[in-house]
Design brief:
Oligomer: single chain
Strand content: under 5%
Distance between the termini: 90 Å
Number of domains: 1
Number of helices: 3
Helix content: over 70%
Radius of gyration: 28 Å
Number of strands: 0
């Protein structure tokens, strides 16, 4: 094994430490529960805004309201 300069070894360790710190920070940000929940919420809202999905949800909502009213009035 070749002799290495202690200052070069320290510099390499410092660079590796900085890279590791950036990686850990990025992973912590990606695993943040609040961020994950916001991403899921955004995805659901975008999905629900599609015309076909919006029409289907409106139809199911209307059927639910009609059936609930009929059930209440038939008591």
């Amino acid at each position: 094994m070749a002799d290495r300069d202690p200052d070069k070894i320290k510099q390499d360790i410092d660079v590796a430490r900085e890279q590791l710190a950036h990686t850990v920070d990025a992973l912590a940000e990606r695993a943040n529960p609040a961020r994950i929940a916001d991403d899921v919420k955004t995805g659901v809202v975008q999905f629900a805004k599609k015309p076909a999905v919006a029409m289907t949800l409106a139809a199911f909502g209307t059927i639910f309201v009609v059936l609930t009213i009929r059930r209440i009035t038939n008591r």
